């Protein structure tokens, strides 16, 4: 069954797959995680704020995005971003932003909905007395949030945030549908060019598997350490 | 925005011959629902078995269950889709491989099997968590009463475990439903694929995606509503269900 397995095609294309492909996947994962956590935190604060309307709007955003398949959202933004760019800059024609920016914007906005729910749970796990104590000391909302609430919320939720990042890492493979050369895209291109589907897809699967498994084992270890400290 | 809105597009005949663009969306929805239900049946069965195995006293059985879950959880669903669709037929003996490739509705069956196994790993996690959430005394009491281990699971542990994990299982069901859209990469003509096709045929991209979005939102509302109704019906008096 593996008699005509061609290891040479993996050796030949390894550089392309690992540097161009995996490099893109990891860059997108890192940038989208950073953007998603920042925007997700803002969404979580909005959902928990006492202002009128703001919690509703943020809640609607989060619930709608969480009900939609990522593939559909990728398509949405792929076509929508040029029009938004035109609208915000006042240009006369839709602005072509390229697949990378389109993907980055999509993943940031999409994953922010998931990060928001995690951070919200983290914020809600903090005893209300701490916030009251901060206010009693004369701290402003911004000071209470940035120096008391968020540091603890992030720390409590760190393992869950990292697990979500692993999910995001796996989700980036879906940029395949807008023909971006990420790890899977690179593997698919070589597979079709050389007619080596078996080798290429198994190789890509192995890389995803090793990275995700290693990362999840590290998260598990981190979780155990944090649990002891607390 | 210089985009030409045309909401009447759905009532125009589609270029595929019979029917309108609306008809394309409806058939897409049917494929989405059928694929989601079939793969969920497989995922629920496999996931329950693996979840139970992971709580057995035998260490080797637990380790086997753990390995199963790690295997299906750590590979992206799209890559798994390609492995089932492109790689598996090549690795089978030639006759079997040919048979698989020539199956009618191959994308559908591949999607069902792929999503079934992918989601089963997640279901297994939940079922295991549900069983472990019960106090040790429950299984001990069952065994002490003379029930076999199988009977203890059937009559004592599982009825409560499934009730406990009903909310997370609902979201896994919805995840599974959303994941059916990944199958458009292997040619399954489900809802997202049909919305994309409308965009390609008519260039009315935002109408097509809006329609698909509304349909997904409605499905979510229906499923969440139905499950909370079911949860209330199955509630056991004396227990506070996680909500």
List the helices and strands and how they pair.
The complex is a heterodimer of chains A (230) and B (243).
Chain A: H1 7-48, H2 54-67, H3 70-89, H4 98-124, H5 128-136, H6 141-171, H7 183-194, H8 197-229
Helix pairs in contact in A: 1-2, 1-4, 1-7, 1-8, 2-4, 3-4, 4-6, 5-6, 6-8, 7-8
Chain B: H1 21-53, H2 59-73, H3 77-91, H4 94-101, H5 106-133, H6 136-144, H7 149-164, H8 166-179, H9 191-202, H10 205-233
Helix pairs in contact in B: 1-5, 1-8, 1-9, 2-5, 3-4, 3-5, 5-7, 5-8, 6-7, 8-10, 9-10
Total individual domains of chain A: 1
Tell me the quaternary state. Answer: heterodimer
How many structural domains does the protein architecture of chain B include?
1
Mean residue pLDDT of chain B: 90
> Proportion of β residues of chain B?
under 5%
Report the β-strand fraction of chain A as a percent range: under 5%
Question: Could you describe the 3D structure shown?
Answer:
The complex is a heterodimer of chains A (230) and B (243). With 230 residues, chain A is mainly alpha-helical. Chain A has one domain: MetI-like (MetI-like fold, Orthogonal Bundle). Helix content of chain A is 82%, strand content 0%. Chain A has helices at residues 7-48, 54-67, 70-89, 98-124, 128-136, 141-171, 183-194, 197-229. The radius of gyration of chain A is 21 Å and the shape is flat. Chain B is globular and about 70 Å long. The N and C termini of chain B lie far apart (44 Å). In chain B, 74% of the residues lie in helices and 0% in strands. Chain B is built from ten helices and no strands. The model of chain B has no long low-confidence stretch (mean pLDDT 90). Chain B has helices at 21-53, 59-73, 77-91, 94-101, 106-133, 136-144, 149-164, 166-179, 191-202, 205-233. With 243 residues, chain B is an all-alpha fold. Chain B has one domain (24-233): MetI-like (MetI-like fold). Chain A binds chain B through residues 1-2, 64, 67-72, 75-76, 79-80, 83, 86-87, 93, 170-171, 173-174, 176-177, 184, 188, 191, 197-198, 201-202, 204-205, 208-209, 212-213, 216, and chain B through 1-3, 70-71, 73-80, 82-83, 86-87, 90-93, 174, 178-182, 184-185, 192, 195-196, 199, 205-206, 209, 212-213, 216-217, 220.
């Amino acid at each position: 069954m593996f008699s005509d397995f061609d290891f040479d095609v993996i050796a030949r294309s390894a550089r392309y797959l690992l540097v161009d492909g995996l490099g893109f996947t990891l860059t997108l994962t890192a940038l989208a995680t950073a953007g998603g956590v920042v925007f997700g935190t803002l969404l979580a604060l909005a959902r928990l704020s006492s202002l009128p309307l703001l919690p509703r709007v943020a809640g609607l955003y989060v619930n709608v995005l969480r009900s939609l398949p990522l593939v559909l959202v990728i398509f949405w933004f792929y076509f929508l971003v040029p029009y938004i760019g035109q609208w915000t800059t006042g240009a006369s024609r839709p602005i072509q932003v390229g697949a990378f920016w389109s993907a980055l914007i999509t993943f940031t906005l999409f994953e922010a909905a998931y990060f928001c729910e995690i951070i919200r749970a983290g914020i809600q796990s903090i005893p209300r007395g701490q916030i009251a104590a901060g206010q009693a000391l004369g701290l402003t909302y911004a000071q209470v949030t940035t120096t008391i609430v968020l540091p603890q919320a992030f720390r409590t939720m760190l393992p869950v945030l990292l697990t979500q990042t692993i999910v995001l890492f796996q989700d980036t493979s879906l940029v395949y549908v807008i023909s971006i050369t990420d790890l899977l895209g690179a593997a698919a291109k070589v597979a079709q060019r050389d007619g080596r589907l078996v080798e290429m897809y198994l190789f890509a699967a192995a890389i995803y598997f090793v990275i995700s498994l290693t990362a999840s084992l590290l998260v598990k270890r981190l979780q155990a350490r944090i649990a002891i400290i607390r | 925005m210089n985009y030409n809105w045309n909401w009447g597009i759905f009532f125009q005949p589609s270029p595929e011959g019979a029917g309108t663009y609306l008809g394309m969306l409806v058939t897409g929805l049917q494929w989405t629902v059928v694929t989601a239900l079939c793969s969920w049946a497989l995922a629920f069965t496999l996931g329950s078995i693996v979840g139970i195995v992971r709580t057995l006293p035998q260490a080797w059985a637990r380790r086997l269950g753990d390995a199963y879950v790690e295997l299906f959880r750590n590979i992206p669903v799209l890559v798994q889709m390609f492995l089932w669709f492109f790689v598996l037929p090549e690795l089978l003996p030639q006759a079997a491989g040919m048979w698989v490739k020539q199956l009618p509705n191959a994308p559908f069956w591949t999607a069902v099997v792929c999503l079934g196994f992918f989601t089963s790993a997640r279901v297994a996690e939940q079922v295991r968590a549900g069983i472990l959430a019960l106090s040790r005394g429950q299984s001990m009491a069952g065994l002490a009463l003379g029930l076999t281990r199988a009977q203890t699971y059937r009559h004592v542990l599982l009825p409560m475990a499934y009730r406990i994990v009903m909310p997370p299982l609902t979201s896994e069901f919805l995840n599974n439903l959303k994941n059916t859209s990944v199958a458009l990469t292997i040619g399954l003509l489900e809802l997202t694929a049909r919305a994309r096709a409308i965009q390609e045929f008519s260039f009315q991209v935002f109408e097509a995606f809006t329609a698909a979005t509304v349909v997904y939102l409605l499905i979510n509302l229906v499923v969440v509503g139905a499950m909370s109704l079911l949860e209330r019906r199955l509630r056991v008096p004396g227990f506070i269900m996680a909500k």
